Amino acid sequence: MIGRRGSNSQFVCSTHPIASLLSTDMFLCFDGDNFGLYNPWRSVQNIDAHREMDPELREYLYKKGAFEMPPIAEQRELFQLFLDKLYHMFPVINRSDIENIKSLSPLLLNAIFLAATRCDGRLDRQTIRSRSQQLYERCQLLELAESNKIVLIQSYLLMSIQEEGVNGESLAKEYVTKACMLCGDLALTNLGGSDGMLMDESKSRTYKNTVYKKGILSRIFWTSFCCDRLAAATSGREMYYNYTDIIIDELSIDDYEAGPSQVNDFMFLKSWYEICKFLFRILDSFYKPPERRGKDHSLPRDLFNWEMKVELYSSSLSGQISLMHAYACLLYLRCKMDPISLITSKNSPSDLISDDYIILLHKYSSVILSIDTFFLQTHILGVHAILHVMALAQLELQALPSSDETGEYLITVKQEVLGSLEHLKNYWWLASSSLKLLHASTKN
Q1: H helical segments located in 68-213
Q2: For residue 411, what pLDDT is reported?
Q3: Which of 60, 244, 255, 382 could crosslink 215 through cysteines, CB 3.0-4.6 Å?
Q4: What is the pLDDT of residues 263-322, one digit of tens each?
Q5: Residue of 171, 279, 293, 282 whose CA lies nearest to 225
């Protein structure tokens, strides 16, 4: 737990000129009146949680079919599919919300359906891809009419799953960044910093006439934090959150609703958060401009010795955590064997690579190639992990002396990678385009 600060302690937003006029709360929230916190720019009297939508906008959205919904039975099926297959990774709602589907925002519902569609085993691959795109476009329309920033954060994080086309990675990064920005707007980054942030024993906030307990606000923030780290790695971009600028308690099991899934939901996000901290350490140590890189001598020991504190009861959940960890390990190993180092080094390429390195490389490559393809189709991380395996196998072939053993290894890896991409080509644009690239390179 993060220690509480005194009533007159300074914080990041204390640089704002209005902050010096506050009596006890140095935490400035740019949507404060709506969220129950101080905000100099709005007044409660001027805010209506049920403000009527602009008639012309409503007419436009109806004309575009934005408010169309599947039958309630299908809605429940998709919602349950999300809870079963993806909730542990995106716990931005409560499991009990399935009992109140009709009260949820149309945007949030469609974002949930979008995420769930990728896990729908009843649909063929082409149908999954086309239906996902249809739901994604509907979410983009509904976004125009949504003013609840909590709903927008929840929906943006779920919409970031949909990576399609040449700009897919940029769009995913954009939605994650928008979610992170709104977390700052609502001071979710400061939840652990002041007893005044949560006014009563219920530890809840009323926003837009909806009560949000501290647990779900904490889960929303930590999910956005993990998505921020992961999107930075997969898109090759900067991270939004600076860990030293936030003050929020660590994720707790009490942040989840009591029930049979509570422990596993908590342990999964806790494990994913720990892996995302490794992603930050890797990016900070090796992928920033050289003069700004950190020194982290304990990183390899911590990374390769990491394991889940508690074994998850579901093999599918354990498999996804194994995939995430193996991806982080390959991202670290990748920076130890890159084309520039192989070309510019005065030493023989084989002198740069130890036997221990090759053992680790093969170990985590095998973990990724052995993951059930169903896990790979639910999130773009799987495609990135597979492509790292292929890229590192190619670099290994360049670095090491030619031998039958090395050649056979590369052939085996390439066959398995091509097989996985063939399965995923109708799920992910990146898989399809990469498959064409690999086939073209083989011909050449």
Answers
A1: 72-85, 106-117, 125-143, 149-159, 168-185
A2: 86
A3: 255
A4: 999 999 999 999 999 999 999 998 888 888 889 899 999 999 998 877 766 777 888 999
A5: 279
φ/ψ of residue 176, rounded to 5: -65, -45
Which DSSP letter does residue 160 get?
Answer: T
Q: Which residues pair with 207 in a beta bridge?
A: 210
Alpha-carbon distance values, 187 to 2, 17, 25, 383 (Å): 16, 18, 12, 34
**Strands, E, within 156-272: which ranges?**
204-207, 210-213
The pLDDT confidence band at residue 194, using thresholds 50, 70 and 90, is very low
Cα separation, 385 vs 75, in Å, equals: 32
Task: Say how far apart CA 328 and CA 280 lie, in whole Å.
Answer: 10
* Sequence-separated contacts (24+) of 33-40 with Cβ below 8 Å: 34/149, 34/207, 34/208, 35/186, 35/187, 35/205, 35/207, 36/199, 36/205, 36/206, 36/207, 37/187, 37/197
Rg (CA), the chain: 23
pLDDT tens, residue by residue, 11-27: 445 555 655 555 344 44
